[in-house]
Amino acid sequence: MTTDGPQTGPTPRVGCVYRPQTAPERIGAAAAAADAAGLDELWLWEDCFLAGGISAAAIALSHSTRLTVGVGVLPVPVRNVALAAMEIATLARAFPGRLRIGVGHGVQDWMAQIGERVSSPMTLLSEYLTCLNGLLRGERVTFHGRYVDLDEVQLDWPPDPAPGILAAAVGPKTLRLSGELAAGTVITGGTSPDQLRDAVSHIRAGQGSGAHRHAVVTYLLCTTGARAHRDLLDEIGEWGFDPGADVGVSGTAEEIAVAAQRWLRAGTDTLVFQPRAAAPIEEFVDFVGTEVAPLLRR
């Protein structure tokens, strides 16, 4: 493990994950706490069969005034793209500039469990991103693909400006697709700095020579408190990651901020600290917002 000096690039955005293992009725209080702590972003997951991503985002947005709320991610096999566009547009108009939406393949076992697994997730994601972006820009979209079929569909209430849609990606093909069609990429927790650096190279390849601005949002396992290091090792084990892998940060605010520089240097611009499922979420967002984020912004 290397020790890096202060990060010298653009000021990163700093967020936390609200893990869906925490009851949905606590989302409002967590969002209010994150807002008060000065946290930039609160990210919500849509995992089967826990809280819905769009409804959870609406709760978080309505209980905060400046906080950006991210959904990472909506599994595209589950939603008709026109309905997804309507839901996203509604939130983007009601809370302008405060919404980040990611979409992805979905966990294939879960997609099979609900009868929505497709034979070519890459084709579906490509068609979905193409149409979703067009709809959110207010375009009248006609598209007849393998999975997405639209005939002169146009939103009556498109958001202005349209929020950039992010894509979750792990493998090289999906990373390149995200670079080509999405406004950003959501990188899963358990990604080391070296793996992130490799992922960013695939994203840039997808962007091509006319590279548009592309955000990189990275979840980062994080523990603090008296058992911080032990808890991080336990969390790494629970996810099935290599216990020797560089996939998380732990300790005091200063230790976490210094360690997190490795992911900033590897290419992320948004660090989203991911607590253990049992961590008190209001305390965690307050800690990251008031103690860790100011160190990372210096």
UniProtKB/TrEMBL annotation:
Q: Name one Pfam family in it.
A: Bac_luciferase
Report the CDD domains cross-referenced here: Tetrahydromethanopterin_reductase (cd01097)
EC number, as in UniProt: 1.1.98.2
Tell me which residues make up the Luciferase-like domain: 20-225
Q: Which domain of life is it from?
A: Bacteria
What's a Gene Ontology MF term here?
A: oxidoreductase activity, acting on paired donors, with incorporation or reduction of molecular oxygen
Alphabetically list the UniProt keywords.
Answer: Oxidoreductase
The residue range of the signal peptide is none
Protein name (database record)? F420-dependent glucose-6-phosphate dehydrogenase
Source organism of this protein record: Mycolicibacterium chubuense (Mycobacterium chubuense)
Record gene name: fgd_4
